[in-house]
């Protein structure tokens, strides 16, 4: 029985093992079958791909179709891949050009399918017009919204944009403004947006009451407030109530009180509004607190004026004496840096009254104690490096001309670490530096000198035995990198240089399309020296999928992409993309540009570039009305098209009428002539002018052509050509004048010039140098009068030694070289000096006059000016100037041909468009019969 049971168990075991083996044999077969079935059922083959752009103009549809086709990551003949489809949808969404993206569900049970991408372009804003918002600027209104010319328009965001505009109006005091945004269709999926603002009656501050001010009057405080409007006229209703201005006024008054010594002052405000009457009443509550009077004692090293700079109480206050404690700490640190490591600083406070007003006397008591100074500093053991160069990195230095040589605690230890770091950065190993401080016998109780010795054990300086590149792409020759990097074989190893080379390698790889590459440098020991290995992980090469521009309604795309070097299919160049961005942003017809790189985040082998542009309003009309001493009252008008024919060219008409005549110019400016990055201007003009104090006038008709090229950031070269009909006519006493000069002349001219400018601002220059020189060749085609060379040079220099002082210098030189058979030159070609632009204090063009008192020109002019411009605050500027000038080689003997000097001053007021000034110049060396000086009025700086 036992044997039978045993046999049954054996039989059962055999059957079990057989079943297991059968299952194991069937699993791979089943898995393969299931996979094949899944492949057949879930991955049908793509037979056809269609893209349907549902809306927009034909040009826009073609552009969007081109972009969408390139972004689709699926191809006919490929099996349907869900990941590739999701990537495609993500790329199309990132472009920002579609309001709806839809792909109808394909039949996944079919063997082949067709994919259809139904893409609805976003509606574009073609024009934005703001009405009714003035005095709030339209630009402020538009910037508060999502709307941009060329940008998308979404119907569901109208309410949000209305609220944004209403918020801007409330900030400007129009608390009850009503805003309506309406649109009109301008074309296929193009919208004109109209923002209509009904300001209604603004909330006005009719009364400002100041409470608690005992030291300063209400008027003085109100004059510092933007919320206050001086009631100059009986109809004044107060300024608009702007909450941000009220908050700014509170801060301004608090700052004012602290600067005047009331550092514990508090300023708060209460604004009570009556919405029915649209008025508000502002109450300012001031708690002046005591006036602080700060004095110092015991300070010999630093003056009171210097130490007051460390007092923070004048700007941050002194709540719970924290301000004083911060100031004490700052003073102590100043002394410690000067070598007074044992300096003691404390303060005493005494409260009292004076003239029934609270005062608090603060005495800052300083015990300077001993000053620790460096007598000598020495670095020993330096052989491989330059000792002088190492010394320049040390703070532990002995006394020099403008340095006392303080020995601050821990300074030698810090310098010791600095020396070790320098050696390590130069490739040295096991460098050891010690710092020994030896104090000398103290001869003066207030000074203690020390000798500091840094002892250097340089160690071994590693050399690079070999430079290896691993993992380089096959299409790049490693020799290119060997020639570019600075780490070379048989040269010393420098860690910083290896880091720089890593960046350089990444840059070179990026220029070859390997924008996802990674470079990891390794330093491998090679005996005492080392081998540098740059491990390159190139990843895949990225090519240009395409470059598209959107939002350009007027500007031609070939103009925008004129200098584009990113050609479709070429490797991506990071430098090329950066250059493209700079070139497009430099276009004068564009307000702003937003670039996108699509596909980089996904690390695709194709990268797509889009530029969303916003065009400036092409048409402009500008007028100005003013007065200038040199031409009396004037009216100027400028009109034109900033983007003529969509070519980024400026068509303009400038006209001016003034007390000395008229001038009109019609021209075209090309900012990129023949795609050579050359600025050019061609114009025709006509003018008639009778300059002040001259006995002749000039009529001119002509044309000019100018080319200008920026060679460097500061250097510009150019040439100007001219063809002109000119006629001089008499206006006053012309006794002795040759009548030949009144004949019409035909003048041909060519004037090359060079300009160097590093001036920070032409509206209000504070620093920089400007130089311009020209040599003009002139030929008279009808007469023998205008045959000469004219050389001119003008130099200006600006220097700002202090924040409120600018020194300005100007020098001018000009000379005429006549090469005609007739030595006579027409008066309208000569140089004249005197007036607001060169020698102030002299009448316009009257530096040299003849026996009849008429101005005389010369063939050579020399003039110069020095001016100090002092900022008085409040937008006022005080100029103090000295001018000098002389004219030489005059055709008629003048009675004052020598160098004339003037000195003067005046007052300028700074406006948003430049200064307006009233200046008086006084003659230093007048001759008999000459005025002692002259008053000048000008808009803008004279130089």
List keywords for this structure.
alpha+beta, Ubiquitin-like (UB roll), 40 strands, 41% strand, globular, 16-stranded antiparallel β-sheet, 8 domains, 16 helices
List the helices and strands and how they pair.
Layout lengths: L1 H41 L2 E9 L4 H14 L10 H13 L3 E5 L9 E10 L1 E9 L6 H7 L7 E2 L4 H14 L6 E10 L2 E9 L5 E8 L6 H5 L20 H17 L6 E9 L4 E9 L3 E7 L6 H5 L4 H4 L5 H16 L6 E11 L2 E11 L3 E10 L6 H5 L19 H15 L2 E2 L2 E8 L7 E11 L2 E2 L2 E7 L7 H7 L10 H17 L6 E9 L2 E9 L5 E8 L6 H4 L13 H12 L4 E9 L7 E10 L3 E10 L3 E10 L7 E10 L2 E10 L8 E11 L6 E15 L4 E16 L14 E13 L10 E13 L7 E15 L2 E14 L41 E14 L2 E13 L11 E12 L2 E10 L9 E7 L4
Parallel strand pairs: 1-3, 4-7, 8-10, 11-13, 14-17, 19-21, 22-24
Antiparallel strand pairs: 2-3, 4-5, 6-7, 9-10, 12-13, 15-18, 16-17, 20-21, 23-24, 25-26, 26-27, 27-28, 28-29, 29-30, 30-31, 31-32, 32-33, 33-34, 34-35, 35-36, 36-37, 37-38, 38-39, 39-40
Helix pairs in contact: 4-5
